[in-house]
Amino acid sequence: MSRLVETGRSALRSALERVGRGWGRVQERRPLSHDLLESDDAYLVVFDAPGVRGEDVDVTFLDRTVEVNLERFRDFYDGYDLVFPGRGVSLSGSVDLPNDADVTPEGANATLTRNGTLHVEIPKRGGSSDVDVVEESD
């Protein structure tokens, strides 16, 4: 009976791993969720960026498009085995600012917050450039 139970557990674990990997690939193909906000002086794009460190974030601004690429890594926990690898590790997204947006990359900034969001602020008035990412300290 023990052999049957172990075989069943092994089959279940294998199935969960396949489902988890598949779900991770689905997440990697879907664009990052985001909000686009506007003030008198700037646009603010807020991306969901859970489990990411500042050095693993790439933000680029070109014309009126903000592009974000995130690489996140899975932490290992002592005494635990990964059963369901359900989180995607390479995530990306982009946001097109409105057609009439007159913005500038000078002074643009990106902040990775402790609660897992990435805030990209682009001042109003024209250009193209990379954006530095700053990680919020504890």
From TrEMBL:
Domain SHSP, first and last residues per copy: 23-138
Domain of life: Archaea
Signal peptide residue numbers: none
InterPro entries, per database record: A-crystallin/Hsp20_dom, HSP20-like_chaperone
Pfam families registered for this protein in UniProt: HSP20
Family listed: Belongs to the small heat shock protein (HSP20) family.
Name this polypeptide is given: HSP20 type chaperone
